[in-house]
Amino acid sequence: MILSSMRLLWVEVFPDQQQVTIKKGYLDLREWDAEEGGILLLDGEWEFYPMQWLLDGSGQDTSGGPKPPKLIAVPGGWNQALHGNGKASPYGFASYRLRILVNPEEKLNYSIRVPSVRSSSELYVNGRLLAESGRVADTKEAYTAKNLPYSASFTADGNGVIELVIQAANYVDSRSSGIARSIKLGSEEAVAKEMKLSVSMQTLGAVIFLMHSVYALILFLLGNREKRLLYFSLLTLCVTLSSILSTDEKLFHQFIYISSDWDFRLSNAAFMIGCYALLECTNHRELSYWNRVHPVYAVTILGTAGITLFLAPPQVIMLFPVYFLLGCVTAVITIIAITKTIMKGIKDHLLLLFSMVALVHHFLWALFLRESALSVAHYPFDLILSMGCLAAVWFKGYFKMHANTKEIAATLQRVNDHKDQFLANTSHEFKNPLHSMLNMSQSVLNRERPLLQDRSVKELETILTVGRRLTLILNDLIDVMSLRDGNPRLQKKAVSIQPIVTGVMDMLQFNAEVKSVSIVNQIPEDFPPVLADENRMIQVVFNLLHNAVKYTNEGYISIQAFTEDDRAYIAIADTGIGMDETMLKRLFLPYEQASASETMIEGGFGLGLSISKQLIELHRGTLEVASVPGEGSRFTFSLKLAGFETEEVQRDSNSNGPPTLPSMPMQDTIGAGLQKEEIFPPAAIQGALPERRSNRPTLLIIDDDPVNLQVLEAILPPDEYEVTMATSGKEALAVLDAKEWDLVISDIMMPQMSGYELTRRIRERFTLTELPVLLLTARSQPKDIQSGFLAGANDYVTKPVEAMEIRSRIEALTTIKQTVREQLRLEAAWLQAQIQPHFLFNALNAVTALSDVDLDKMRNLLEEFSNFLRYKFRFQDTAGLVPIKEELSLVRSYLYIEQVRFEERLQVVWEVDDCGALQIPFLSIQPLVENAIRHGVMKRTYGGTIHIRISVHAAHAEITVQDDGIGMEEAQLQRILERTANHQSGVGLINTDQRLKRHFGTGLHIQSRLGEGTRVTFHARI
Questions:
Q1: d(CA 526, CA 561)
Q2: What is the C-alpha separation between 327 and 319, in angstroms, rounded?
């Protein structure tokens, strides 16, 4: 009933196609006027010959005699009627026959259109084979599956009879087989017209969808990688594939036939992927409950698509319910997501509403065609409309975003202008108090220099140097606005470059010396003058030289000049870190700097090079740069040479002395006219100095900025701390073994080796308590602080440092180190004073035994025992170094006593080079020898041998104590130098190891094998 209603609806929608009634395999069309252009659907009762061929390839009757035919509904499946034994099966072969009577007086060319016969067929008209799809056969081996639409043209015989015979076979498709869709009959012109229309519509739809796919993919690749564009591209590509592979005219197969197997696989896999892409084009993730199901859905649908590509057609058909279920889920979730979006505002989402309605219409129409088995011209407009509206939604969003971006850009431009104005105003406000501070500092320095300590003079000069640098930085900030508003006024005159470079070098010389960088001025004194603004040239040279010093850690910076044509070229070259191509492209942009995470260098506004380039261009010159990463950079700027008419002016101005740097208070000028103060003799000043403590903590401070080093040096008075400074991690590691340090203070952002890396290198040799590390960082983010602690730091201080805070932290960390040092001293004193009772008793028993046997040997034993006790009770040597001869004397006394006791069981081999003035910690060899005897050779019944070997090399001596005792297992060897709360082996080896590390940087190196013996080695610097 429902199917009949759908067919009636279809007839009303498509009046050109007419449905006729076929009874018992006959159709009378003698009253039908085919010239009107109508097309008939040959639906009804056809004669059906199961498992029988009516005709062979030549048109001969092969039925073997008349057999009563069955009647079967066309279109429809033959599953129930094929075998006739009550068993439904789609596999087999059969013949269909229909006799059509037409008006014999009409001499027309008729055409028949066969859209789908599963899954191979032949078409005979009046005994002639006119068309086929695949190869029909009565065996699966001889059969070839191919289900493509085809057409054939013909004429009726002289009696107006058209006998249609369709022979079909199927051995692979498990669905309902036979004639699956309505067969069309009409005049040749009418059928050709409809077929052309259908092909055109399908081609149009495929082209439009493919265009959507391509431009969406291009926008995704060239744009901001919005994933929805990628999914939309994938969706339209899947729609295109599904359309041209398996629907209506099957356009793809008309050009390239890929077999029915791959037809099944690709079309169904594309359907699954298209469903997933459709869902991803919506806001489905906003559905609360769906979020929990979506991961399972995604894995299921994509997994099903992947599996489909490896299945045979019968297996793919078995998955049809799964495809249908997943497709329904996609449709429902898509509709819900779109509806939820539309409900936020229908007016703003009309296009989305149209897209949803068109999409729903397409699915309903596809379902209707599938269930009714009708064959109509391809109808792509609803899907085209849906995809077009969906694309329009995104275009609308992009246009809106573009408008918002323009508005935001305008706002940012206004804010940028306000920012530059704010910086300029702030710089003006800072300049007056800064100049006052500099002038007053200069006055105090000029007036009080004879009365001040050298340290105070140095700190005041550092303040003045920093202030002058700050003045030039403020000038850069002020110039930002003046250069943007228009060309600033330049007071050009004949200027000599050589004295300008010399003055700027004096300002930066301290920075360069601290970093081991030499600045070489190779400009000759007679270099011709240039036409330029003197103050601006000082600004340019300062910026270029300061940049070179900042990014050069070692090597040199050279300033050269040469002339060419009527121009002067000044080149500043360095051996610094260099720049890559990316950095060179944005080097002269304002507020641009090299990445601090890459260079490990912070500071500055990134304005110097930008302003320098603009100032040089205002002088009608050029500023160019060449650089190689890791090798250095070379900046070259050009200026016009001064003409002859300006040389007299230049000579007159030079006669009064070299030009004065702006914002640099000169001592003679500021101090002129000041009243002279009484000068105290140096002895009186020195007498007022406080005495320095002898036990001052030794600090190693590392920072690549010399100003920061000066600040820390000022905060930490020399009478309280012994400070050593370094400008790089490499330099710090070089001096780490020079002495024992109480604390390392390191900046994090340093070139070549960061503070993190330096801390990790220190922790490879020293524990947290053996050498504390305090990190200075301008970054206070938790991840930066965490990185410091993970590297092995004890504490951190954020910059700029507060004097009270850093001194408190330094005191706390140095107290830890001094406490550990005191613990080692007490342990060493305890080891020195400790005499094992059994050793004492054994020694006295030996003396008693020798008194009755050998008095001379007894006297020698008493002498060695006395010598051993005398060295044991020298407590003043516990913290320092002693000559190795004293340590060896103690060892010999101890060994003599033990050899008298154990006799032949203890053998000692000495291999000692000339040690000269070598010094080692007291009680560093004797505990090793005692440990080798007690826990090594004497554990054996027959004893063993002790080897004591001292090898002297150019810079160090190697001391080794080796025994052939019982040795140790690997697990015991790993724990032997660990200090734990429940450690059972005493403190002898641990204390010796830590004291050696304290003095020489390295401790004990122990090698042992169970049953073979132990070897203990340490190195001492000569």
A1: 11
A2: 12
Say which residues have a Cβ less than 8 Å from residue 788's Cβ, sequence separation at least 6: 748, 755, 756, 759, 775, 777, 796
Packing angle between helix 350-372 and helix 2-13, nearest 10 degrees?
120
* Contact (Cβ atoms closer than 8 angstroms) between residue 528 and residue 570: no
Mean residue pLDDT of the chain comes to 77
Comparing 337-346, 425-434, 503-512, 909-918, the range with the smallest average pLDDT is 425-434
Separation of alpha carbons 488 and 479, rounded Å = 8
Provide the total of helices (H) and of strands (E) in the chain, helices listed first.
Answer: 30, 33
> What is the C-alpha separation between 9 and 3, in angstroms, rounded?
10
Six-digit token string for 249: 């005219």
Q: Closest Cα to residue 250, out of 177, 195, 174?
A: 195
More confident residue, 729 or 468: 729
Q: What string of DSSP letters covers 423-464? A: HHHHHHHHHHHHHHHHHHHHHHHHHHGGGS-HHHHHHHHHHH
- Residue 653 pLDDT greater than 50, yes or no: no
Burial class of residue 825 (count of CB atoms within 10 Å of its CB; 0-12, 13-18, 19+): middle
Using only C-alpha atoms, what is the Rg of the chain? 50
Mean pLDDT over residues 378-394, rounded? 71
Structure tokens at 514: 């601290």
Which pLDDT does position 581 carry in this prediction?
80
Q: What is the DSSP letter of 694?
A: T
Number of other CB atoms surrounding residue 480 within 10 Å: 22
Which letter, b or e, does each residue of 839-856 get, where b requires 16 or more Cβ atoms within 10 Å of its Cβ? beebbeebbeebeeeeee
Q: What is the pLDDT of residue 66?
A: 55
Residue 307: other Cβ atoms inside 10 A: 16
The residue among 802 and 501 whose pLDDT is bigger is 501
Q: 46-85 burial by CB neighbour count: b if 16+ within 10 A, else e? A: bbbbbebbbbeeeeeeeeeeeeebbebbbbbbbbebbeee
